[in-house]
């Protein structure tokens, strides 16, 4: 018998947090983004570019960005 999406979601929510994250990543890697998602991503990029151009946001170096992300992730528990 084929499980419904609702049944799969119910079972997935019983997984530990790390396993749920791995499942989400695996599904996203194998999925094609919808046109709506692509349009929203483009809108967000354009909004962020405008903020940089208007001086509302600053650019930071890649290494510094990675360091900040890793630092914030290490504080999540």
Q: Can you put this structure into words, describing what you see?
A:
- By secondary structure, this protein is mostly helical.
- The protein folds into 2 domains: 1-31; 33-77.
- 69% of the residues lie in helices and 0% in strands.
- The protein has 4 helices and no strands.
- The longest helix is centred in the middle third of the chain and has 19 residues, at 35-53.
- The radius of gyration is 18 Å and the shape is flat.
- The N and C termini lie far apart (38 Å).
- The mean pLDDT is 93.
Give a quick summary of the entry:
The chain has 77 residues and is mostly helical.
Summary tags:
4 helices, flat, 2 domains, 77 residues, mainly alpha
Q: Can you tell me the overall shape?
A: flat
Q: How many DSSP E strands?
A: 0
Number of helices: 4
**In terms of per-residue confidence, which ranges show pLDDT below 50 for 5 or more consecutive residues?**
none
Q: Helix/strand-derived class? A: mainly alpha
Q: What's the domain count?
A: 2
Overall pLDDT metric: 93
Q: Which band does the percent of strand residues land in?
A: under 5%
Give the N-to-C terminal Cα separation. Answer: 38 Å
Order of helices and strands: HHHH
Largest sheet: none
- Could you estimate the helical fraction of the residues in percent? 55-70%
* Rg over alpha carbons: 18 Å
């Amino acid at each position: 018998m084929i499980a419904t999406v609702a049944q799969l979601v119910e079972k997935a929510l019983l997984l530990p947090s790390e396993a749920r994250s791995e499942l989400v990543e695996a599904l996203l890697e194998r999925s094609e983004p919808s046109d709506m998602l692509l349009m929203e991503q483009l809108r967000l990029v354009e909004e962020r570019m405008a903020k940089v151009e208007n001086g509302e946001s600053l650019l930071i170096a890649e290494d510094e960005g990675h360091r900040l992300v890793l630092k914030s992730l290490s504080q999540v528990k």
